[in-house]
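Bench log. Compound arrived from synthesis this morning; before running ITC I wanted a structural hypothesis for how adenosine-5'-triphosphate sits in the protein. Inputs:
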Amino acid sequence: MIELEGLTKRYGEKVAVNNLTFAVRPGIVTGFLGPNGAGKSTTMRMMLGLDRPTSGDVRIDGQHYDALKEPLKYIGALLDAKATHGGRSAFNHLLFLAQSNGIPRRRVDEVLDTVGLTSVAKKKAKGFSLGMGQRLGIAAALLGDPRILMFDEPVNGLDPEGIHWIRNLMKSLAAQGRTVFVSSHLMSEMALTADHLVVIGQGRLLADTSMADFIARNSRSYVRIRTPQRERMLDVLHQAGVTVVESGSGVLEVDGSKAEQIGELAAQHQLVLHELSPQQASLEEAFMQLTAESVEYHAHTDEPAPQEWGDGWRKD
Ligand SMILES: Nc1ncnc2c1ncn2[C@@H]1O[C@H](COP(=O)(O)OP(=O)(O)OP(=O)(O)O)[C@@H](O)[C@H]1O
């Protein structure tokens, strides 16, 4: 369990993390979401004792990180995959970490095997691709067989097979009863991996809830209907007091009713249906809806007018 209590971090005038209170529980994968600059990395760094809170507290299984003897046995983390000594081989990098935490040498071989790096164990880390670096970082996180695991953008640089692998790894670590805390900007991936979500914006807590509840609260759900007997269907729905929205190309949309109810109404009136489908917004839509006001860095979609760049680049 990771517990935060009023956790706050200021950098001068900037409040990077603002009074965060939440707990990351064992046995599930908890996703950590927020727009760029929301304070996710700063929060994770404070969890690991790499940054000191301005105020508030964070505890790892009831203890401060600094008080943990051989911390890799309590919490394993992937924060920055490039944070390795490039001149060391993958094996030696892990061996150094293992020795400083009283972890037996054979565990190095085990984690190299788990992450699929056995064949390059003697190669220097500086020659590794982004994906191989991520795997090495994950091996380091697993080294002490910790009860708590934390991953900052773990799928960054991984190929589809690697993404599939890390998803299953995180789920199985949680199924073993471990605490798994993971940040990612890849919403489609998060939707497949996390059971619970903590969402922050501009350093503040915006949501701490289950995945299903988060999507239901922050997006519209409706039933989509297509029928060749559209006018009769509209009459039947109106008579039943159901509010219908007519969207383009003859599709009807009904908020606040279940597909079963509408199907039964249609059957009672012998109406033919070509489609009757419950629609739920994606995690991405729900996330954009919730965080719209706390996004700090907006891209401009309009192309700048040529004169803004000067005309020097133009060909005559
Ligand atoms: N060492 C620092 N000094 C000054 N400001 C900092 C420092 N570290 C972070 N910040 C600021 O704190 C805020 C939160 O940054 P942080 O990196 O924690 O966000 P994030 O949610 O991890 O963002 P991203 O998704 O872009 O990685 C940002 O405005 C950032 O500029």
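What the model suggests: The chain has two domains: 2-217, 219-280. Residues 305-316 have pLDDT under 50 and may be disordered.
ITC booked for Thursday regardless.
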